Amino acid sequence: MLRYNPRYQLFLAGSDAGLVILALLLSIVLRMNINLGMEADPEIFTPPLILYVVTPLIWLFAFGTSGAYSANSKMPFVQTLRRVTSGHILASLIFLGALYLIYRDFSRLQAFYFTGLSYLFIIIHRAVLLAFNRRLAGAINTPRRVIVVGTDAHALEVGTAVEAGASFGAHLVGYVAHQGQPELAGIKILGSVDEIHEIVKSARAEEVIVALEWFDEAASQLITRIMKLLESSAVNIRISPDYSELAYFHARPEDFNGVTLVGLRETVMTPTQRVIKRLNDILLSGLFLLITSPLLLVIAIGIKLDSPGPAIYRQLRIGQHGRRFVIYKFRTMKLDADQITDPEQVRELFEKKKGDPRVTRFGYYLRRTSLDELPQFFNVLKGDMSIVGPRPEVTWLAESYEWWQRKRFEVPQGITGWWQVTGRSDKPMRLNIDDDLYYVRNYSLWLDAQIMLRTIIVVLTGRGAY
Question: Fewer Cβ close by (within 10 Å): the C or N end of the chain?
Answer without folding.
Answer: C
